[in-house]
Amino acid sequence: MLQLYSIINYALVIYGYLLIIYIFMSWFPGARESSFGLFLMKICEPYLEIFRRFIPPLGMIDFSPIIAILVLNFARVYGLSALFGFILGL
Length: 90
Prior knowledge:
mainly alpha, membrane, transmembrane helix
């Protein structure tokens, strides 16, 4: 069970890094239209779209990716621990 916890934890950490890379790609013209950018768009946009529905951009700044990363980290740290604690009966 500990190995499954570690795999899911590392997968969420990697996904968080991919979100950050995808967000920074918006600063560079044409970066999101590259093959890597399109790959990240397929992975990151479904998750980010959930937050964009509820958090509108303020002027030119979109705060929804920041909230999305915070929620992902909160779920990774507290949610994953609580889930595995419940499964293992700790």
